[in-house]
Amino acid sequence: MTPPALSFRNVWVEYGDNVVLEKLSLDIARGAFVSIVGPSGAGKSTFLRLALGQEEPTRGEILLDGEPIPAEPGPDRGVVFQRYSVFPHMSALENVMFGARCEQAPVSGMLAGRARRRAREEAAALLHQVGLGAAMKAYPRALSGGMQQRLAIAQALITRPRILLLDEPFGALDPGVRLDMHELITGLWRDHGLTILMVTHDIKEAFKLGTRVIAIDKRRRDPHAPNRFGSTAVYDFPLDEKARRTVPPEVAALTAA
Amino acid sequence: MRRLLNARPRGGARLLLGFLPIAALILLYLVAAQARHAENPRDKILPTPAAMAQSIEVMAFTVDPRTGEIPLVADTKASLTRLGIAIGAAALTTLVLGLGIGLLPYVRAGLGPLVATISVIPPIAVLPILFIVFGLGETSKIVLIFVGVTPFMVRDLAGHVAAIPEEQIVKAQTLGASTWLVALKVALPQAMPRLIDSLRFSLGPAWVFLISAEAIASDVGLGYRIFLVRRYLAMDIIMPYVAWISLLAVVIDLLLLAWSRTAFRWAHAPGGRR
């Protein structure tokens, strides 16, 4: 049996007396599109930082394909942040080629001849897929917010990450643009057979896109010491086609608060 | 009637407005020089344009039989060499230290306080130390400029590099970049336009340190010349020299700006200014 793409085993994160996450255990299957929701301050970002390796759990372990994850970000885990995740000094094409350059030219960061041509073709193909075929030479400052996020996604895909982490990827976009992006990411997820972990505060988005929605929140509360208890997975919904269209009231209440 | 703060000069009016004070200043000088010469034809404090033209002829177009060189050319060569070496060394040091301090927590912890301490020392105050350590030759002048501008530039660049959004640094790592590639391909290109900016700002102080050092101990150089002829109240030489120094400063500034605009197009808004 193949191990889950990503698994959290009894993970705790504490800063002194402040417990952020407690007893968090979950497995994410290969090919899943998992949405993480929860009220602000519940530890959604901490959760993502753990998966990225930006932060280490106080207790417990995190496995990627059955192996403990390295304690720093690496090419096995791709990421798209809400903002600032493209390089302003590179054209769209160079931004996407960056991953190939790092892999194939770890000293000079430059490719030549056939390797360069191949990386360029691959990057161009990815840019066409995300709808930026006409903007390959443009610098990010000339692109709209939605186009920058398309670029950030294409850039993350070139290393073929084992899991793609999305941190509020569409949070800064206009509603219309957001709908286009939903279509784009669903298409890419299907075509590339991606495993996606998306943190969002938009509950509708979570249910619309995910094959599974996990809500994290504090299970216990001490009114005199709000940091005494940490968050954990309080709801876990595997979704079929029908379930995607309706948001359970208890989850809606959770994020409305 | 429109408020004064909403009234904007346009086109020709704007050019004329900018030209007027300069013209007025020149006119004022000419009138004052004329008046003084009417009283005393040998006046040296406000030389006439004709006297200045004559001095320019001697300093800039006549070979000095003692040295076999044109004084202005020799002075300019000496000064620009000192300035160039010092500024070049400062820029290189700034790149290495600025990237190190801005990117690497260990380097920041180790060198940050040292750079911060050095940058509060007034450079002219250490000039005697430089003269004692390096002698009165070229080295101490170059080191003075270097010491004067580098700490400020390092702090500025380190701050700029440290302000690169963490998202970018993390993203680069998820694309497989090592520390070296993050420095070379992510931080360095973004540091360059800032370094050029900071060089442009540092050139003002650099000229001050250059002229101070030349005034105190030198036998050639633009600063040496104006302090030398000061003894003879030779305003007819000092004023063209000051104008020449200003022109050099403006040209160097424009060259740096042009370099930044052509080599780092992404850092400048399509409209030009950034």
Task: Give your account of this protein's structure.
The complex is a heterodimer of chains A (about 260) and B (about 270). Chain A has about 260 residues and is an alpha/beta fold. Chain A has helices at about 45-50, 90-105, 115-130, 145-155, 175-190, 205-210, 250-255, and strands spanning about 5-15, 20-30, 35, 60-65, 65-70, 75-80, 165, 195-200, 210-220, 230-240. In chain A, the strands form two sheets. A six-stranded mixed beta sheet of chain A has the order 6-7-8-3-9-10, with helices on both faces. In chain A, helix 5 links the parallel strand 7 and strand 8. The mean pLDDT of chain A is about 85. Chain B has about 270 residues and is mainly alpha-helical. In chain B, helix 5 crosses helix 6 (about 140-160), helix 6 (about 140-160) runs antiparallel to helix 8 and helix 8 runs antiparallel to helix 10. The radius of gyration of chain B is 24 Å and the shape is globular. The interface of A and B includes residues 54, 85 and 161 of A.
Summary of the model, kept short:
The complex is a heterodimer of chains A (257) and B (274). Chain A is an alpha/beta fold.
Q: Would you spell out the secondary-structure blueprint of this structure?
A:
The complex is a heterodimer of chains A (257) and B (274).
Chain A: E1 6-15, E2 18-28, E3 33-37, H1 44-52, E4 59-64, E5 67-68, E6 77-80, H2 92-104, H3 113-129, H4 145-157, E7 163-167, H5 175-192, E8 196-199, H6 203-209, E9 212-218, E10 231-238, H7 249-256
Parallel strand pairs in A: 3-8, 3-9, 6-7, 7-8
Antiparallel strand pairs in A: 1-2, 1-4, 4-5, 9-10
Helix pairs in contact in A: 2-3, 2-4, 3-4
Chain B: H1 11-39, H2 49-61, H3 71-103, H4 105-118, H5 127-134, H6 138-162, H7 166-174, H8 179-216, H9 222-229, H10 235-263
Helix pairs in contact in B: 2-10, 3-4, 3-6, 3-8, 3-9, 5-6, 6-8, 8-9, 8-10, 9-10
